[in-house]
Amino acid sequence: MNLISSKAFPTGELQFKPATLDTWPDFETLFSLLPAPGMCWCMYWRKTRAEWWGHAEENRAAMRALLEAGKVPGILAYVDDVVVGWWPRHGASFRGLTARRLWGS
Length: 105
Description:
Structural class: alpha+beta
Helix content: 25-40%
Largest sheet: 3 strands, antiparallel
Order of helices and strands: EHHHHEEH
Radius of gyration: 14 Å
Low-confidence stretches: 93-105
Number of domains: 1
Distance between the termini: 42 Å
Number of strands: 3
Oligomer: single chain
Mean pLDDT: 77
């Protein structure tokens, strides 16, 4: 599966798939694009700052472990069978989430 480029955004219908072991290669592709997602691997909400900051490989392994345990931590978005986005699952228990962390107060 190819990743979109900024010059040619797909124009097809938006489709969604759960993040599972089957879609792991797409998740990896998406999170390997930029430094920030590649460092966090969407573990920001699941760990303390000290646990996730600067631990890209551990975060990647932790996300993979969630999938291996049968968890569905979010959904991937596709256009024309190309992964274009990610939404973390809402309603899950996210350790370390506080009003201060959300609003910076």
